[in-house]
Write a structure and sequence with these properties.
Number of strands: 0
Largest sheet: none
Radius of gyration: 23 Å
Order of helices and strands: HHHH
Shape: elongated
Number of helices: 4
Low-confidence stretches: 107-112
Mean pLDDT: 77
Helix content: over 70%
């Protein structure tokens, strides 16, 4: 298998993964809409005595969605780094070069 074939397979896998992420987000949006409607219909001023209790109940519903979105954001950031490496395999990342320079690496050490 050539390097180009490997890149094509990797890009195909990343595209399928992005499609699945989109499907997850669509399902989460539908679920969030259902939760919103339930909260609007079932949590009223009479349900809880204190406003803080009402707010805590609402935040409990949305906390899970925030965690899912954070996880998907981390996943997409990782995919982005991989795509950058595929697009520019010879270009060294500025962060890595500054990291290596902190350990005394110079341009001669990088070529080894």
């Amino acid at each position: 298998m050539t390097r180009e074939d490997a890149y094509n397979i990797t890009l195909d896998a990343i595209a399928k993964l992005q499609w699945n992420v989109a499907m997850i987000l669509e399902a989460k949006a539908t679920e969030a809409e259902k939760v919103r409607n339930w909260v609007l219909n079932h949590i009223t001023n009479d349900t809880y005595e204190a406003h803080s209790e009402k707010l805590a109940a609402c935040l409990q519903f949305h906390e899970q969605n925030v965690e899912v979105i954070e996880g998907l954001t981390k996943l997409c950031n990782g995919l982005s780094r991989n795509l950058k490496e595929i697009i520019n395999p010879d270009k060294e990342d500025d962060a890595m070069s500054s990291f290596m320079s902190g350990f005394g690496a110079n341009s001669e050490d990088k070529s080894k």
